[in-house]
Amino acid sequence: METKEINSVHVEQYDASPPNDYLGKDEESPSSLSPTQDWTPEEERKLVWKIDLRVFPMLCVVFGLSLLDRTNISAAYIAGLAVDLELAVGSRYSVALLVFFIGYFLFELPSNYIIRRIGARWWLSFLIVAWGLMVLAMGFIHHWKILVVLRAFLGIFEAGLFPGSIYIIGCWYKQFETGRRISLFYMASLFSSGFGPIFAYVLSLIRVGGPGSMYRSGWRWIFIIEGIATVFAGLVAPFFLVEFPERVKFLNPRQKHIALERVKVDKLGKEVVHPTVKEMLVMLADWKIALYCIQYFICASSVYSLAYFTPIILRQGMGFSYAKAQLLQSPPYVFTIIMSLTMAYISDKIKMRWPILCSQAATGIVGLLIILYVKAPAVRYVGLFLAIFGCQANIPATLAYGNNQTGRNEKKGVVAAAMISSGALGGIAGSTIFRSQDAPLYMPGTWSTISMLMLYIIITISMSMHFKRQNRLADEAQAEGRQYILEKTPGFRYAP
Q1: pTM (2 decimals)?
Q2: DSSP 469-488
Q3: pLDDT for 418-436, tens place per residue?
Q4: Domain coordinates in residue numbering, the chain
Q5: Which of 3.30.43.10, 3.30.70.120, 1.20.1250.20, 3.90.1150.180 is the CATH number of 41-479?
Q6: Residues 6+ positions from 46 with CB-CB distance below 8 Å
C-alpha cells in the first residue's frame, strides 16, 4: 500500500485489481463483461449476502444496547428513581434527559473523522465499553447531580456509534440497497425499545439485602445489569464488528475488488479518500445538508419525546398500573418494526423515497391527534401504535434519503455525522417539550411535534421535486453531449 497526496486530499491507494487466479475456467472473463464491470451478477449476489452476514449482526446488537442504555432512565423513573433521587422536583428529570445530548451533539462529527483512521472495530469497541461503565455506575448513585454527570458522559461516548454505523453501511452498499438495510439495522435494534420495558420491569423486581439496603431498590438493578451487558458486548466487539471495505480481511482480493468497485460512481478508481478537516468544513457548507439536518432533527425530537414520555403517558394519561404501563410499551414497537421494514422494501423497490417519508410522517400526525383528542384508552392506545410507527420509521428512512443524495463516499461520513448531530439537538427538544406540568395530555408538546411533522412533509416534497428536476437536466445534457455533473460526481443521479 502506498500513500500519496492528490489535491491536498490524503489518499491510501490499494491494489484491488482481480488476479487471474480468481477467475475459474468456467467463469466469464473480464473481457466478456461490461468494460466497467469485470464480475458476474451471481458473484455479486453471493458477495452481498456474505457482506450482509458480517456487517449487521454485531452492529444491531450494540446499537440496540445503546438505545436501551440512553432510554432506560424512563423505566427507572417509574420504578423508584424519581422518588429516591427526588427527580420530580422542578426540572431535574428534564435536565438529566437533555444533558445527554450536549456531548452527543458535539462529538459525532469528530468521531466520524477518527473512525476511518483508527478503524471501526477498535474505536467503536472502546466507545461501547466506556458508555457501559457509565450505565453501570448509575446503579450506585445517591444524588441526582451525579446522575446528570454520568448522563453527560454517556452522551459523549455514545455519540460515535450511530453515525459511524451509518457511515460503514453507506460504504458497503449501492444507492438503492441502503434503504432497507439501514431500516433493517435500525429496526432490528429497535427490539430493545420494544422489549426493553419488559426486561426493565423484570429487573426492577430484584431485591438484594435486608431492609434499608440500597440494593433493594429495583431501579438500581436496571442500570447494573444493563451496564454489565454493555461492557461485555464492548469487550467481545472487536471479534465481530466489521471494518470499512478497504480494511477487511474476511474477503479475498477478488471479493474486495468487487466490493470496492460496485459502490463507486465516481472516477477515483482504486483510491480511498480521507478528507482533511478543512475539506470536511467545505462539504458541510452544502445547503442540502442543512435541510437533511432539519429533517432528521424533526424525526429525532419526535422519537425521543415518545420514548421518554410514553411510560408516563400510559401511567398518568391513560391510567394504567406500573406493570401494565411497562408491558404495553412493547406491542407498538413490534408493529413499527414490521411496518417499517415493509415500507423500506417498497421504497427500494419503486426507487422512490419521498412518498414513503411523507406517508409515514402523516401517519405519525394522525396517531398523535388520536392520543390527544380521543378519550377512550383503547383507542388512544391504537393512536400510540400509529404515532410510534410514523416517527420511528422515518429515522432510518431519512438517513437513507440523505445518504442517497451524496455521490462521494468521503462525503457520506460527513452527511451521516451532521444529520445525527442535528438529531442530538432534536433529543434536547424532545426531552423538554413534554413538560411535567402539562400532564396528562401534554398539549403543547404534542402540538409542537405535530407542527414539526407537517414541516417535515413540506421540506421533503420540496427537496425531492428539486432533485427530480436536477436529474432531468442532467439526463437532457447527457443526451445532447453536454456536461451537467451532479454532486461533483460524473454519472451520479439523485434518489428522490
Answers
A1: 0.74
A2: HHHHHHHHHHHTT----BTT
A3: 998 898 888 888 877 877 6
A4: 41-479
A5: 1.20.1250.20
A6: none
